[in-house]
Amino acid sequence: MGRVSQAQAEENRRRVVATASRLFREQGTQVSVADLMKAAGLTHGAFYKQFTSKEALVDEATAHAFTELAQRYNAGLERHDGEHAAAQRALVDTYLSVEHRDDPADGCPVAALATDIAREGGEREARRVYTEGVADFADFLATDDQDGILRLCTLFGALVLSRATKGSPLSEEILSTAHAALTEAG
């Protein structure tokens, strides 16, 4: 088997990072390198040609997940002609939906990665990226009437609790109660 071109190597790296970002949000960062590479359609050995360690991939995949999140809320601003309140409302509607609850792989990295990031060392790049991403998301969520951190904590807590109680009526009640609290007051 011959060497891959630089362009193919870059595409493979992008595919691994995107796959890792989804799998880490869905299953946590304990996903094995072998399973991750299989999901990306590449060999286990190819991993070490792209990354120095799994921790380096966690760092990059975390950044990728937060870039996707920022793109989503910026796209919401564009869809709503820059009207921040309308974009926030649309984000709250989506965030506190059954679909988001049931699809952590494509969901919010704040909720999906919190436990894994909390276990990371304080000097890790993933923790820095996560912290900046949380701060940016809270800034986006702030209104004249409500603090962005409070709104983010409500979103985060409702999503995590609804996922943990999925299959019971309480799960959807958590989502709808948090939705009402955020949309009636904001």
Task: List the main descriptive attributes of the protein structure presented here.
186 residues, mainly alpha, 0% strand
- Count of helices? 10
The proportion of strand residues reads: under 5%
Cα-atom radius of gyration: 18 Å
In which range does the helix fraction lie? over 70%
Describe this structure in words.
It is a single chain. By secondary structure, this protein is an all-alpha fold. Helices cover 76% and strands 0% of the residues. The chain contains ten helices and no strands. The protein has helices at 6-27, 33-40, 44-50, 54-79, 84-95, 98-102, 109-119, 125-141, 148-164, 169-185. The chain is globular and about 60 Å long. The model has no long low-confidence stretch (mean pLDDT 93).
Reconstruct the topology from this structure.
Elements: H1 6-27, H2 33-40, H3 44-50, H4 54-79, H5 84-95, H6 98-102, H7 109-119, H8 125-141, H9 148-164, H10 169-185
Helix pairs in contact: 1-2, 1-4, 4-5, 4-8, 7-8, 8-9, 9-10
